[in-house]
Amino acid sequence: MSILRDIFQDRKNEIDGYIRLLKNIDPREKDLNAIETKRHRELLASLEIDTEKRCILLASLFILMYNMIEAVMSEASSFIVEEICKFSEKVKTNGKKFHEYLNDPIRHQWILSCFDNNITHNSKRRIEEYDKLYQAINAKKFIFTKIKKSRSGNWDDETIEKFAKVIGVKLNISDELKRKVKEVCFGYKQKIGQYKTKQVGNKTKQVGIIGYIRVQRNRLAHGEISFSECGNIPISYMNDIYETLKRYLDEVIGAFENFIEQKDFVVDKNIFEDVS
């Protein structure tokens, strides 16, 4: 099992337990008779759990689900880098440098990793950065430190697909799941001018299930909506969103694992003939 699967499973365990808790405190989710319903309401009252608090607890699911997305995708970047570095130490490159065998997308990311993200137009700084690349090209040991990824708080199905394309990973999400992921949640319209700073105006963009998780998490984090307002939706609906997210991330993780297992990051797989 890859580290991606471990992280995915840890987050699933957290959310599964949390959803069980929510169902236990929501009488609408329990098949109770009149007496049991009364006792259940009395228990909730003793714990001071009213409708508003249930909504607050339910809204926290957006935080947990986005945490799952961010954890998996942040680790996906490190996973690719670490696995490629492991292979680089095992292969025979016949006198060539390992980076010469990398496919275009990964080689481009390797080159970018040699540069400081905050490089300026100052000539001295530029020379220093070019020298880093020169040293990396001529180094005896292949060094790959990072892959540029989406800024924190911006992961959804669109940014995941773009990230995968940039590094050459084929997602191959099933058509049925693609349609499910793109379904519009509550007809929610995302104001482009509000959420994408490079665009302004009154244009709107409908968001699907993964995008809805991102938007609601960001609205909560930035104080644009209260938890009680955000969580004023049926738990069954939230559970459907969660189930779709799990299926989607499972297929995404499978694509990244396959990318490494099939050694799709190189142009000549013959260098791996004797590598297990």
Describe what this molecule looks like in 3D.
There is one protein chain. By secondary structure, the protein is mostly helical. The protein has eleven helices and two strands; from the N terminus they run H-H-H-H-H-H-H-E-H-E-H-H-H. It has helices at 3-25, 34-46, 51-88, 104-113, 123-138, 157-167, 175-182, 192-195, 209-221, 227-230, 235-261, and strands spanning 189-191, 204-206. The chain has a two-stranded antiparallel sheet with strand order 1-2. The longest helix is centred in the first third of the chain and has 38 residues, at 51-88. The two termini are 16 Å apart.
Placed side by side, the strands forming the largest sheet appear as: 1-2
Characterize the main sheet: 2 strands, antiparallel
DSSP strand tally: 2
Proportion of beta-strand residues: under 5%
**Assembly state (oligomeric):** single chain
| Rg result | 23 Å
Helix run count: 11
Class per helix and strand makeup = mainly alpha
Order of helices and strands: HHHHHHHEHEHHH
- Extract low-pLDDT stretches: 187-201
Task: State the separation between the terminal residues, measured CA to CA.
Answer: 16 Å
Name the overall outline: elongated
Task: Give helix % range.
Answer: 55-70%
Q: Whole-number average pLDDT?
A: 78
Pick out its properties.
single chain; 276 residues; mainly alpha; two-stranded antiparallel sheet; 11 helices; elongated
Summarize the structure.
The protein is mainly alpha-helical. Helices cover 61% and strands 2% of the residues.
